[in-house]
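Below is one such record:
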Amino acid sequence: MRYIFLSVFAVLNLFLLLEIAPRVTPQGTDIRNDIRYIYQDGHDIANGINPYQKIHGSNMRENQKYSTYFPGFFLFAAATVRLGFDDLGKFLELWRPLSILIHLSVGLIILMLFMDKGWLVAGIFSSLFYLYNRFTLSVMGSGQIDLLAILFLILALRKGNPYWFGVSLAVKQVAIFVVPLYLLVSRTGENFKEQLLSIFKLGLKVAVIPVLCSLPFIVHDAKAFIMSILFSATRSAGGLATRLRAKSVDHIMEWEGLLARLPMLAMMGLVAYLCYQRKLGLYSSTFIIFWVFVCFNSVLLTQYIVWGVAFLPLVLLEKREV
């Protein structure tokens, strides 16, 4: 009965999303969001070019569409180029329907998490809340890759699987902020030494997939790779924050570099401490950490908000445990 219900729910929502998607999706290839540049990075890899080398000569402040993610999705895009999707138009014909399926899959997993506890109505609400709120619809329509990274993160937390966590990081490393929480909440052992060892082992399992994906680029040009990954931590404030007139405290104070990130890191440190004391569960702490990221990060973009939105209903899952 469970799987029949899930199948009907999936089919009904797929039809609705197929109606919605063309209304929120930019038509043609004249798009200016990250998917254009992510595909180009994959295209470069397919043609033997290291996309991370674009960072050379950067002042590490102004964004010139550098390759700031781990290469998991770049490698996927490169594979599609080799399979014949050798221009942006062809790639988008593949990626746009996949984005809808990924979006629906996240909604279904959220529903299943609640059904695992026997909370069907709460699950339906939570799934629909995720599927049809303005932020996730916007990201789904734009073709951004955040929903894919969120899918693997929720899978990782549902199954307690550190390798899925690593896949999420390999796609887009926003979940890096959740890694300390995951390690602290998931640690085992009766004493500090045993707990430290379990954290170390879990950390290695989380890191193995993004490291393996990145290794060829590190070997080829370690400086370019490190600079590209660190750029997100040093870039100047801007983006949606300024358009909304909702500047972060560092932007108001005109702080730059690491100093600009200290308010966010301090808030995240407090959340990590609560996890260490087991005062917060994993879903609750993940939800809080993403909203700290949204509210305190120097740069605010629409797709960042989706990470917090996806975990908002999951806080309900811990209402009996925490």
